Amino acid sequence: MATLDSKIPEGQLAEKWSNFIAHQNLVNPANKRKIEVIVVGTGLAGAAAAASLGEMGFKVKNFCIQDSPRRAHSIAAQGGINAAKNYPNDGDSIYRLFYDTIKGGDYRSREANVYRLAQVSNNIIDQCVAQGVPFAREYGGLLTNRSFGGALVSRTFYARGQTGQQLLLGAYGALSKEIHRGHVKMYNRREMLDLVVVDGRARGIITRNTITGEIERHSAHAVILATGGYGNVFFLSTNAMNSNGSAAWQAYKKGAAFANPCFVQIHPTCIPVHGDFQSKLTLMSESLRNDGRIWVPKKKEDAQKIQRGELKPTDIPEEDRDYYLERRYPAFGNLVPRDVASRAAKERCDAGYGVGNTGLAVYLDFKEAIGRLGRDVIEARYGNLFQMYEKIVDENPYETPMMIYPAIHYTMGGLWVDYELQTTIPGLFAAGEANFSDHGANRLGASALMQGLADGYFVIPYTVQNYLADQITVPFIKTDLPEFDEAEKGAKNKLNKLLSIKGSKTVDHFHKALGHIMWDNVGMARNKEGLEKAIKEIRSLREEFWKDVDVPGGLTGVNVELEKATRVADFLELGELMAIDALHREESSGGHFREEYQTPEGEALRNDKDFMYVAAWEYQGDDKEPLLNKEPLHYEEIEVKTRNYKDAKS
Amino acid sequence: MGNKRFQSSLTKKFVMAFMGLFLITFLFVHLGINFLVLLPDTTAFNVAAHFMGTNPVIKVFEVILFGGFIIHIIYGLILQIQNWMARPNRYKIEGWSHTSPFSKFMIHTAAIIFIFLAIHLADFYFKAKLGHIGEVNIDGENIHDMAALVLAKFKIFGFVIGYIVAFVILGFHLHHGFQSAFQSLGLNNRTYTPFIKSLSTIISIVLALGFIVIPIAIYFGNF
Amino acid sequence: MNLTLKIWRQENPEAKGRFEKYEISEISPDSSFLEMMDLLNEQLIKEGKDPVAYDHDCREGICGMCSLYINGRPHGPDSAVTTCQLHMRKFKDGETVTIEPWRAKPFPVLKDLIVDRSALDEIIQVGGYISVNTGGVPDANDIPIAKEKADLAMDAAACIGCGACVAACKNASAMLFVSAKVSQFALLPQGKTEAKDRVKAMVAKMDELGFGNCTNTYACEAECPKEIKVTNIARMNRQFFGAKVSG
Question: Is A431 on the interface with C (CB under 8 A)?
Fold first, then answer.
């Protein structure tokens, strides 16, 4: 059984991080050249970590699946990045950002990590501005902020509707600088197939070049996984097509504990599903909820007429509209956290008040905001989002309300890491969405970018060094070690097996089937019966997959179906673990809503007595139940309460 | 890789643009003199032509002008060859983007203008230099009767047509060339660029029409 | 909708390549172009044929990975979108759609419609950034930046590096891409320190890689999915000549 030592430093909450830095081990500049570090992923966390470690003088090898490190899925984040700068003078502070994040995460995140996140949030903004990130500014030339869900202050910095893109380009610039200086070697179009563990330490990875098909070995003194989340287990999600959970899953199977897999975020403002052929869902930034008002018809017959196309939203008079978020949560209104907004939409749609031809959509209406601020202001704020909506849906959101529906967006769960972001495998670190550390059971808007960059720029460079301090005498790791042979052989066997099945169904068929099981049973609302059913169905689907999947082509050259097949094979296992975790967590918290545990008003009902812990699952073998390890959560600086977004007392 | 260029693409473009603008100023001078041929008394035209052919200051400018032409042509060719090399495999369907049609055919219009220029120089410039032209006596000096040569040429139908076509093509070339030169020189500005673009249209029309009007007037007129 | 597709197929960078014709039916006008391609591939797999390889990732029009030169235009017949955001309602039933890879000497075809665009990364690597290391930077609000400048910098920074400008340009020139990055930093006080070296290094790299020269045709601007303006090219020209003159 793994021992979960969270390694939280001594001292007051506010002093823990500075205590760590003061006492950590360092590597002298001459020795850094003799140490190699592998970073998998080039999103905010990966690119920032690779660049920062390169700047320090480590020899870094950086890997990405795309054709360029600039394309990692961090680019898709639209709305913004939080920081406790308190520039608007509206009462923000490090403590308040910390508090909002813990509360937003429904008291299921580690206090010390979250406090550190809030502390370094301000450094991130400074760093990005120095890199030339064109954040939005006031006429006086200073930075401006907007508000986001789950907060009573405006602390979100943004770069039009492209905040993720611009922050990533900043990190990509820093990475490019280090590639140019020769400190980072970049490997594009590589898929990580396995992790190599030598004498209990992470020492390398096996990759496949997706163009040549070549299987490669790469070694290093430490490995950092910044490979993002596993939202694509649902098939339809707002994740990029190539986003996958396989790197983290290989780490899990090599001994890294996987924490809180069932904590998945459903984003309330996505463009609704429109057909079976659909390949992915498109997110509309949460920032839209600043000015847009969410409603459905008050009368069921109006909703039905809209579904049949007999009525238009603009035909519904004001008094027949139900602004249900404003009604249920007067203090936060349309800006309640994502899980609350998503569930409220589902509740209305399930009750028959949904709109659109499927009845699975609600309106996000800008009429009032356009009337109040003028079309120009709305266009300046959300122009590119409105344009994107119009391109996809073929409706003009300036004239008719947008339709939105919740969709899978982010995974709070991930590899279990300690305070130093190290997994239970020594020398294996996880950063960004790939780890579980900061968001508990629900992530607040504009906090993913913050966490990715915090991990990459300001945490990993310190903590990895702490680990590497006693590795300076270890020579470069050879790739002809038996552990590499074995890992490569395992990876090749898996690929060959997939190619040899030659069944009758495509990979996508299985992925879609898995997605349906997950969405119906392990989605926005879960219950015991559904979860048990899901586990059974996933198991039989997995069996069928290994008997009947058709993966054409061979090992060499481009083989997209083979790439997809390896990912879906892993999703078929990961999905089961998510269901197992959801089944075991007999409470509702954040994104995990168990129908059996709710208040009479339909709000989430936590069980702090029995479940105030991180569930870290440990792999025991292919056909064995995973082992549950618990890391109890202690809150010293915060009073644990029921989340309340109804009134302003928080 | 490794083909470090002798001059950067931007420098070559700068030279192209600068020379192009310089050549446009010459066209205006040339057009001004051409109009003199339409005067009832051809003396003014002949005197001007004589001045242009013999004045020492103008002789210096002549060298600069030829240099300008040659540099504009050579740089244009180098840039074009590099441009062709930058896409060794062509598209099956191409050029459907919404852009100025004239800009896509600069090398083609340039080739036609070059041919015209060669014929033009052979017909007038070199003839004058080599003295194959009749003379007139003005104020006691014998000078070439360029006017008679011009008037005779522009009575030939085929010659007039060729001349008109050449200047229509030159108009196309200038329509893109003039405003494009400003962009290449880095002079693109929200306030002035619309004006420069209009000016480009006006200049190309004025120059082309100006040159074209003369042969038409001579062909149909009583000269 | 029913369509005839003419698609460029090429085994590897050395292979010759050819157009293949495919018929595809029952396409929803609401589906995206890449969803249509997915269906085609599903059909090809069922027929035991090699699926068409093409690049794509986010399918939200922001990562810049999708490409495709569709009926003579990069990213197809719609304006201000990437291929992944192009919807089939922009095509007519029964239409023949010709799909080619981006074509430029610095963008070799790797397979079918996939090209290697790492040349764009190489240009960035020689200077498309502000050389600050992590940590030790001034407070974000220490240097005010006029909103107008910041907005212009944002306009330029919106480039997603897809390479449509190169694909559209009759000369396969990368001027719009390079100028967008040069402009972003030229407009910001933080970028001024290295501005001269940046523009010289990036232009030299662009030339070295074999991109064509700009003839101010502006097909790049017409096809840019993020509507980057050619005024950035003029700004880069100014920056470049300024840097040359002042040494």
Answer: no
Q: Nearest to residue A93, comparing CAs of A58, A69, A119?
A: A119
Strand order in the sheet with A402-411: A264-270, A402-411, A362-365, A293-297, A321-322
**Is the confidence metric ipTM above 0.90 for this complex?**
yes
pLDDT per residue over A499-513, tens digit each?
A: 999 999 999 999 999
CATH of domain A268-407: 3.90.700.10
Beta-bridge partners for A629: A616
Cα–Cα separations (whole angstroms), residue C227 to A257, A364, A367, C155, C230? 46, 27, 27, 8, 9
Identify the residue among A241, A462, A465 best suited for mutation to test binding to C, counting C beta carbons within 10 A and taking the highest.
Answer: A241
For residue B87, give how far its alpha carbon lies from the nearest alpha carbon of chain C (Å): 5
Residues of C in contact with B88 (CB under 8 A): 105
pLDDT tens column, A270-284: 999 887 788 889 988
Angstrom distances, CA of residue C241 to CA of B9, B14, C177, C197, C211: 12, 9, 18, 12, 20
* A192-251 tens-digit pLDDT: 999 999 999 999 999 999 999 999 999 999 999 999 999 999 999 999 999 999 999 999
**pLDDT, tens only, B16-73:** 999 999 999 999 999 999 999 999 888 999 999 888 888 999 999 989 999 999 999 9
One of A71, A110, A190, A338 is an active-site residue; which one? A338
B7 CB near a chain C CB, below 8 Å?
Answer: no
Q: How many CB pairs under 8 A join B and C?
A: 139
Closest CA to C102 of C8, C4, C15: C8
Residue recorded with tokens 């249209």: B201
Inter-chain CB proximity C137 and A129 less than 8 Å: yes
Q: Is C6 helix (H, G, I), strand (E, B) or coil?
A: strand
Pair (C121, C73) in one structural domain: no
CATH of A13-266+410-471, one of 3.30.40.10, 1.10.3720.10, 3.30.420.40, 3.50.50.60: 3.50.50.60
Q: What is the pLDDT of residues C141-189, one digit of tens each?
A: 999 999 999 999 999 999 999 999 999 999 999 999 999 999 999 999 9
The secondary structure element, H or E, covering residue A633 is none
Nearest CB partner across the interface for C219, out of B8, B88, B99: B99
